[in-house]
Amino acid sequence: MFKKSFFLLMMCLFMMTEALAGELQIIDKPIIWSEQREQLIREYAMTHYGLDQVYITPQAVVVHWTASGTWESAYNHFYNESRGDGTLNVASHFLVSKEGQIFRLTPETALNRHIIGYNWCAIGIENVGGVGGAEDLTDAQLEANIDLILYLQEKYPTIHYVFGHYQQVAARESGLYIEKVAGYRSEKIDPGHNFMKALRERLQDRGLVFYPE
User: Fold this and answer.
1) By residue range, what is the domain housing residue 152?
2) Cα angle at 179 between 50 and 120, to 5 degrees?
3) Domain count, the chain
4) How many CB atoms lie within 10 A of CB 50?
5) Residue 170 to residues 78, 157, 209: CA-CA distances in angstroms?
6) Which residues face 150 on adjacent strands?
């Protein structure tokens, strides 16, 4: 009974759209959140980080692109709890459409699987675009990412780092990287050098750590 009540409370809090976002417009569009997802999160965190956790203390924001053309296709890709092999499905906390709409997919402090080595402490922002590696993220997405990162920095003073998915190796300088599975890595190019350069230029006076292009 207690566990069921806890889930209901979490979802009620999650669905309080824009309660803390001020002028920032965030649309709550939750993917499946269930006991199964929590169990898969725990298994992933223990396997890859040696940590028993479902929720994180955010210390970094990682920016991605979806390599898909619509927010709906990305949302559907993230929706289910598990992958075909029974492990935790990939997902990010936020999804930004080409028009700059911000969708919140999970609780902001949930552990989501979006970047190897940093999921235990990082909030993920997915931007629709990048099909075929094209650097085609829009000005509207740039403005939405800036506003969202500022919102997260204000809400979570523990956030000090912002980096693109392709900067995952450079970001090891932060000391945040953990990976217990030998050889588990990937090469990424998202969200593109131009987008990260623009983010860094616009947020360089905010006390956040960025990494060189």
Assistant:
1) 25-203
2) 65
3) 1
4) 10
5) 27, 22, 12
6) none
Residues 112, 132: Cα–Cα separation, whole Å: 24
Per-residue pLDDT of the chain (213 residues; tens, 9 = 90+): 434 444 444 555 444 444 344 579 999 999 999 999 999 999 999 999 999 999 999 999 999 999 999 999 999 999 999 999 999 999 999 999 999 999 999 999 999 999 999 999 999 999 999 999 999 999 999 999 999 999 999 999 999 999 999 999 999 999 999 999 999 999 999 999 999 999 999 999 999 999 987
As a whole number of angstroms, the distance between CA 150 and CA 203 comes to 9
Residue 121 burial (C-beta neighbours within 10 Å; 0-12, 13-18, 19+): buried
The answer to whether 133 and 84 have CB atoms below 8 angstroms apart is no
User: Which is nearest to 87 in space by CA: 9, 181, 189?
Assistant: 181
**Residue 87 corresponds to which tokens in the numbers above?**
């492990």
> Is residue 66 in some structural domain?
yes
Whether 7 is in a domain gets the answer no
Number of separate helices (H) and strands (E) present in the chain: 5, 6
Residue 92 lies in a domain: yes
Whether the bond between 191 and the residue before it is cis, its omega within 30 degrees of 0, is yes
Answer whether residue 42 is part of any domain.
yes
CATH of the domain at 85: 3.40.80.10
